[in-house]
Design a protein that fits this description.
EC 5.1.3.2, UDP-glucose 4-epimerase, binds nicotinamide-adenine-dinucleotide, 19% strand, seven-stranded parallel beta sheet, 331 residues, Rossmann fold, alpha/beta, binds galactose-uridine-5'-diphosphate
Length: 331
């Protein structure tokens, strides 16, 4: 029996593969390497280089590897890009997920875990935001993920098929053992951009918006460390395998940090007082979003191990310093 990880060559997926291998699971990855890397897939896992839209390959992989659970990370992830190219996002995130879910049902795979996002909430009326809050995505990215959640809910009602959708808040940091990290090309995420600036890959960075109704005027987010997030998926896998009902859980720490606070943490960790430019707001950014996390803690017994912004930033910084060497040695 194996677990199929789609998008397992990407940032979060590569950490999931490590988490599963560490737990003694057999793992097969399907990834088209559009933003992922061959070298990011741990050697203990099999990699099938294919698009999830190729459902013949998906079905064959499920059968060849006796797959009994799918963890679905493959997708497009940049909010502003989704505003510019909504149909591209609905294709890659929604239409292709539909094909994958159909292949799972056809092949009798009953357990499915989906990478959803806090972006389904849009700009929440209250923080921390609970799973029952109004769903009002502010971008095609958020809508494309919400539509997949809806497909999963309807499919689980019609078939012998159960799912867990995990709504990630802001994923950050790198493997605590240094085996993987974020290598996304042209990264847009705050901690990644700040670390690239700290190590001199960028001359400066921007703060998008200083006039939000928050303590220091910059946006507030809940940053969850990537190994902790992978551990939540493994807890969800155990839950589904033991017969748990389909569920949706937030994944965050219930703690918010402002953009200024995050940049200060990166400056502290790097010892580099790099240049920061104050810029206008970025389209589509909610002012503040922080997860209510008691549901995932109670139902899955999830207990974070890396809930510390300084640790998260240091991991990201160490990864940034070493990643080019790693990439070069793999090519
Ligand atoms: N990074 C975050 O903060 C965050 C937050 C919420 C949700 N998510 C979700 O988590 C998932 C993983 O995100 P990530 O940060 O690791 O991004 P990533 O870009 O590093 O990983 C995505 C992986 O999927 C692959 N892929 C994309 N489209 C594919 C397709 N059609 N067929 C096969 N492979 C395909 C890419 O090559 C890449 O390896 C995404 O679904 C994303 O929406 C991420
Ligand atoms: O160079 C930068 C990059 C980001 N920011 C700010 O930092 C905050 C966090 O931005 P990120 O781009 O790191 O993350 P987002 O909150 O926009 O989005 C992330 O979290 C969302 C859920 O909250 C989605 O899941 C999405 O996929 C994921 O990218 C925002 O206020 C953004 O404007 C800057 O000021 N400068």
């Amino acid at each position: 029996m194996s677990v199929l990880v789609t998008g397992g060559a990407g940032y979060i997926g590569s950490h999931m593969v490590l988490e599963l291998l560490d737990a003694g699971e057999k793992v097969v990855v399907i990834d088209n390497l559009s933003t992922g890397y061959h070298w990011a897939v741990a050697p203990g896992a099999d990699l099938v280089v294919a698009d999830i839209a190729d459902t013949d390959v998906v079905r064959q992989t499920i059968r060849d590897h006796d797959v009994n659970a799918i963890i679905h990370f493959a997708g497009s992830i940049v909010v502003p890009e989704s505003v510019a190219d909504p149909l591209g996002y609905y294709l890659n995130n929604t239409v292709k997920s539909r094909g994958l879910i159909a292949a799972a049902v056809e092949c009798g795979v009953k357990n499915f875990i989906f990478s959803s996002t806090a972006a389904v909430y849009g700009n929440p009326k209250e923080n921390p935001v609970t799973e029952t809050a109004e769903l009002a995505p502010m971008s095609p990215y958020g809508s494309s993920k919400l539509m997949t959640e809806i497909m999963l809910t309807d499919t689980s009602r019609a078939h012998d098929f159960r799912f867990v959708a995990l709504r990630y808040f802001n994923v950050a940091g790198a493997d605590y053992k240094g085996r993987s990290g974020q290598s996304t090309p042209k990264a847009t995420h705050l901690i990644k951009v700040a670390c690239e600036t700290a190590v001199g890959k960028r001359g400066q960075m921007e703060v998008f918006g200083t006039d939000y109704p928050t303590s220091d005027g910059t946006c507030i987010r809940d940053y969850i460390q990537v190994n902790d997030l992978a551990a939540a998926h493994r807890a969800a896998l155990k839950y589904l395998r033991s017969g748990g009902a389909s569920e949706i859980f937030n994944c965050g720490y219930s703690k918010g940090y402002s953009v200024h606070e995050v940049i200060a943490a990166v400056k502290r960790a790097s010892g580099n007082d790099f240049k920061v430019v104050l810029s206008p707001r970025r389209a589509g950014d909610p002012a503040a979003i922080v997860a209510a996390s008691s549901k995932v803690r109670d139902a899955l017994g999830w207990t974070p191990q890396h809930d510390n912004l300084d640790e998260i930033v240091l991991q990201a910084l160490n990864w940034e310093r070493g990643v080019d060497r790693l990439k070069a040695s793999a090519t």
